[in-house]
Design a protein that fits this description.
Blueprint lengths: L2 E6 L7 E8 L8 H10 L2 H7 L10 E4 L5 E8 L10 H18 L4 E4 L11 H14 L5 E6 L2 H11 L1
Helix pairs in contact: 3-4, 4-5
The protein binds ligand AR6.
Length: about 160
């Protein structure tokens, strides 16, 4: 079972094996945490992302960490929230599961996640936290997972979901 802890902060400061990026399906960089990761990793990240030819929602692809203090960046496009009837919960769960799979495949032991889809993509926070916590805790691998909440609201919502 993966072990889960929660911190408040900026995921680009995380020192470990991998961080996860809340990307878009084009893997072309954007705002939010994606923008912060691209700025901190440097321009080589954009070049590496373009070679991956995008990524479907719910799946995950890997690049090196470049200027970040991690070996890998795992890019996963979360679902854009519409009304919950467009497989958003299933797709969000897949983001976490597939990102964790990529981490294990690459020999990672420590991986950090931002709260996928709950910013620009508008996923309701409490529901997203439940899915994230359950997907991570049920994942059967010896991984130390850190949820990095960028703001107090997200931190509190994860605290509640973690029980
Ligand atoms: N460290 C940790 N979390 C962060 C950081 C950071 N440096 N910056 C923001 N967050 P969002 P999404 C939090 O919008 O909803 C991009 O344009 C933020 O407060 O980054 O999955 C992509 O290219 C929120 O809690 O991701 C896509 O087009 C969480 O990260 C789209 O946004 C996710 O917010 C993806 O939207």
């Amino acid at each position: 079972m993966a072990d889960l802890k929660l911190i408040k902060g900026d995921i680009t400061q995380f020192k470990g094996d991998a961080i996860v990026n809340a990307a878009n399906t084009g893997l072309v960089g954007g705002g939010g945490v994606d923008g912060a990761i691209h700025r901190a990793a440097g321009p080589q990240l954009d070049i590496a992302c373009r070679k991956l030819h995008g990524c479907p929602t719910g799946e995950a692809k890997v690049t090196p960490g470049f200027n970040l203090p991690v070996r890998f960046i795992i890019h996963t496009p979360g679902p854009i929230w519409r009304d919950g009837s467009f497989e958003e919960p299933k797709l969000l769960r897949s983001c976490y599961e597939n990102s964790l799979k990529r981490a294990v495949e690459n020999g990672c032991q420590t991986v950090a996640f931002p709260s996928i889809s709950t910013g620009i993509y508008g996923y309701p926070l409490a529901d997203a936290c439940q899915i994230a916590v359950s997907a991570i805790r049920r994942f059967n691998a010896p991984l130390q997972v850190t949820m990095v909440a960028f703001d107090e609201t997200t931190y509190r919502a994860f605290e509640k979901a973690m029980g």
